[in-house]
Amino acid sequence: MLFKSLAVSALAAAALAQDLTTLLANTTELSNLTTYLGLFPDLVGQLASLQNITLLAPNNDAFSRLLNSSAGAALVQNDTALIQALFTYHVLEGTYTNFTDTQFIPTLLQPPQFTNVTGGQVVQAVAGDNSTAFFSGLLNNASSTGSPLNYSGGVVHIIDDVLIIPQNVSETAIQANLSALAGALTSADLVETVDYLSDVTIFAPNNAAFEAIGSAFPNLTMDDLSSILQYHVIQGTVGYSTLLENGSVPTVQGNNVTITIVDGDVFVNSARVVVADVLVANGVVHVIDNVLNPENATATANPSEETGSPAFSGASSASSVPFTSGVATPTASAATESAPGATGATSSSTGAAMPINTGAIGAAALFGGAALVMNL
């Protein structure tokens, strides 16, 4: 028993003594990643010098899918800033040998052209019985199984997909099939305003919510529409699902919204959260099933109903989804619901620079070009 204990201790010490470069080179499952990183010695040096980190390393299959996709062109073009952003988004602050429940963990992705989240963009980690799921932009899901690999600067978890850098709000709305919201932001001239804000929580009505009260929109002035949309935005707090609590919160519009949590279901005034925790460049989006009305801030939740209650009295549905004319269509289909374990799911300052509209550079799969269908 003594010799066995000594042998285990020796192996552990050897693992901790190796640096990141050695670990990657000696891990067959990461050979594609290692080969590609070899083209960027400065980046490798930066990653290897970091301490107390957790690296989420895409396995060979994940990296092959990336390089063989249209997004691979962005890597081949050797855009150093973009490549560094991608890899730093795979680096978690802190050493996580395991994960518990649902966590939103800051990464080293901090440059303002990619994120306006104080402390760095996050990855959502959801612990399962035998694996951990990591959710990134557009709820893209990468999973890790098995034990982490230890090295002198921290640990490595091998994942089965490449993480997607969260995009700005307007591009996320398009790719998530929240086309009515995307069009409404354009009609109200709020696209840049919303994209420039930092540390936001946005309650985004799905297309069905806009369609259900379609008769209310034709007579609205731009100021009316702007007021309604700003009533869906909270600035200064990134309210991930794990942080949402019962109570009232002021919006950018000025009036408060009321958060109500009943048996794990989250309501905003009378609207129900149907998809939680869609990460965006400047915070988080929760999709709701009704449009909020700043003139009806006292609308209350009805947990006994499967859907929330409309906040626009007397409004009727439209024959088509409002505000969608001319809005770009999503490029593909991807996730359709929140991460398992997210609350309510089947959670002040302005940034100096607007996070990049990464969907515009042609790197679809890498930076969130897949669509997230949310007509729920």
List the helices and strands and how they pair.
Blueprint (H helix, E strand, L loop, with lengths): L1 H16 L2 H6 L5 H7 L3 H9 L3 E6 L1 H8 L4 H5 L3 H9 L2 E3 L8 E5 L15 E6 L3 E5 L5 E5 L3 E3 L2 E6 L9 H7 L3 H9 L3 H6 E2 L1 E6 L1 H6 L9 H9 L2 E3 L11 E4 L5 E7 L2 E4 L2 E10 L2 E6 L60 E2 L26
Helix pairs in contact: 8-9
Notes on the structure:
- The chain has 376 residues and is an alpha+beta fold.
- Among the domains are: 140 residues, FAS1 domain (Roll), CATH 2.30.180; 120 residues, Roll (FAS1 domain), CATH 2.30.180.
- It contains 12 helices and 17 strands.
- The strands form 4 sheets. A 7-stranded mixed beta sheet has the order 11-10-16-15-14-13-12. A 4-stranded mixed beta sheet has the order 2-1-8-7.
- Strand 5 and strand 6 form a beta hairpin.
- Helix 8 runs antiparallel to helix 9.
- It is elongated.
- It starts with a helix and ends in a 26-residue tail after the last strand.
- The N terminus is likely disordered.
- InterPro entries: Adhesion/Biosynth-related, FAS1_dom_sf, FAS1_domain.
- This is FAS1 domain-containing protein.
- One of its GO terms (biological process) is macroautophagy.
- Keywords: Signal.
- Pfam families: Fasciclin.
